[in-house]
Amino acid sequence: MKTIKKLIVELIDIKKQELELKVSFDDGETLLPLVLVGKLDGSAALFAGEVNDVVSVTKTIESLICELKTFKEQDLLVVITRHAKDTLRPLIDIAFIKGYCVLISSKI
After folding, report:
1. Rounded to two decimals, what is the model's pTM?
2. Domain that includes residue 40, residue range
3. Apex 104 CA angle, 48 and 21, nearest 5
4. C-alpha angle 75-79-81 in degrees, rounded to nearest 5
5. Helical pair 4-12 and 61-69, crossing angle rounded to 10 deg
6. d(CA 108, CA 15)
7. 23 Cβ partners below 8 Å, 6+ apart?
8. Closest by Cα among 106, 107, 72, 108 to 2
9. What is the DSSP string of 31-87?
10. pLDDT digits (tens, 9 = 90+) for 95-105
11. How many domains would you assign to the chain?
């Protein structure tokens, strides 16, 4: 499990800050776009989009770092979800798959 502070440190160390971010709930088998960052139930929530969702902005490593730095509470745990009523799953790893930086959560 990662806090905002720990995730920022890990993301800053990645040389290609322009890489597009994707989210995976199944160890990288399925890649979903990261569409929204917010606070939900006392955690920093990264919302993954579905194929049919309209995604207007591609999130990069650099843009996610900027958004995460706006949180006053840097010790919040980072979770990934599909929507506000879905299960919040902790972010457990960062991987590079098919040219994307993939934020991997626990399996569904």
Report:
1. 0.87
2. 4-105
3. 55
4. 155
5. 150
6. 30
7. 31, 32, 33, 34, 46, 48, 80, 102, 103, 104, 105
8. 106
9. -EEEEEEEEETTEEEEEEPPTTS---S--BHHHHHHHHHT-S-TTPBEEEESSTTSP
10. 999 999 999 99
11. 1
Q: Which residue has the tokens 């979903």?
A: 32
Question: Torsion over CA of 57, 62, 68 and 74, rounded to 10 degrees?
Answer: 170
Residue whose token pair is 């900027």: 66
> Burial letters for 13-37: b for 16+ Cβ neighbours within 10 Å, e otherwise?
eeeeeebbbbbbbeebeebbbbbbb
- Band (107; pLDDT cuts 50, 70, 90): low
Two tokens, residue 104: 């991997």
